[in-house]
Amino acid sequence: MSNKDIFLNDVKSGENTKISLMVMRVMFRDTTKVVAILADKSGDIKATIPCKKGDVTEGRVILVEGKKDGNFDVRKYEFIDEYEIEDYLPTVKRPIEDIVEELELYTDEYIISREGKALNDYFFKNEEFLQKFKKAIGGVSMHHNYIGGLAEHTLGVMYLSTVFSERYNCKNREIAILAAKLHDIGKIYEMSYDGPFKYTLKGEMEGHIVIGIQMINKAFESEPNLYSEDFKARIKGCVVQHHGKPEFGSPKDMNMEESYIVHYADYVDATMNKIEKIKEKYPDGGWTEYDRKLEARLYL
């Protein structure tokens, strides 16, 4: 239950206020003050904070008192140690449990082999994995960059993979749909999502594809006599190839029907999420500014 009763977008310019915010980025620091970006889930603001101890650091939640007037002029602050992370970071709009429930509906319908069920259950019946999965982000900035974004993206890719598999009569339908569910599991360790979104050291060094393959290999090793070589090769091939081409960050070009399905499902879902975010900034439509990620202006 949230105990935060006021959000940044509720505070009017020129108004003195007392509000809790997360330190997202420290821009400048000297012996008397810190200049930082403070935020909650409703927005962010540049703030000047009197600080002689050097204890204002990224990821801390602080109760600040001062005036919002373009920037935020903080008079005093104190730290808050108990809080709901979802109050301070952007969060998926749909209830996360509804997303997970829909994922399981597709799983129950399409993942029916002994191998498929065992691999799915190794991850999605593991409570520690599942809790990380439900909170993880889909990206730091590219797409689905909010708490629960990974689960929402996974559902989108899994759904599109069922559509593509049915429409084009995929020979290894279960492989495509299960690989869609597993394609980004490495992101739970690639990125940090309990404070300002950023890449972990492991994420910077290895990336989510390599991390995901390591996780899947451990699953296979847990029951070495269960999985066929063909099943293992196809699942791992889809995960390795889901970015499509080396220039898009894929270690290997696509060479299976299933990997084409997962790649295009991934591409469509990520792209449409970017467009959805742009639409929110232009409720009246018209031409948008140039978007670096889409490499285009949109006419909405």
Structure description:
- The protein is of the alpha+beta class.
- The chain is built from nine helices and seven strands; from the N terminus they run βββββααααααββααα.
- The protein has a five-stranded mixed barrel. A two-stranded antiparallel ribbon has the order 6-7.
- The protein is elongated.
- The mean pLDDT is 93.
What would you call the structural class? alpha+beta
How many strand units?
7
Please tell me the overall pLDDT: 93
Strand content: 15-25%
Helix segment tally: 9
Shape: elongated
Write out the strand line-up for the largest beta sheet, numbering strands in chain order.
1-2-3-5-4
Order of helices and strands: EEEEEHHHHHHEEHHH
Termini separation comes to: 38 Å
Q: Radius of gyration, Cα only, in angstroms?
A: 22 Å
Helix fraction bin: 40-55%
Largest sheet: 5 strands, mixed, barrel
Uncertain runs are none
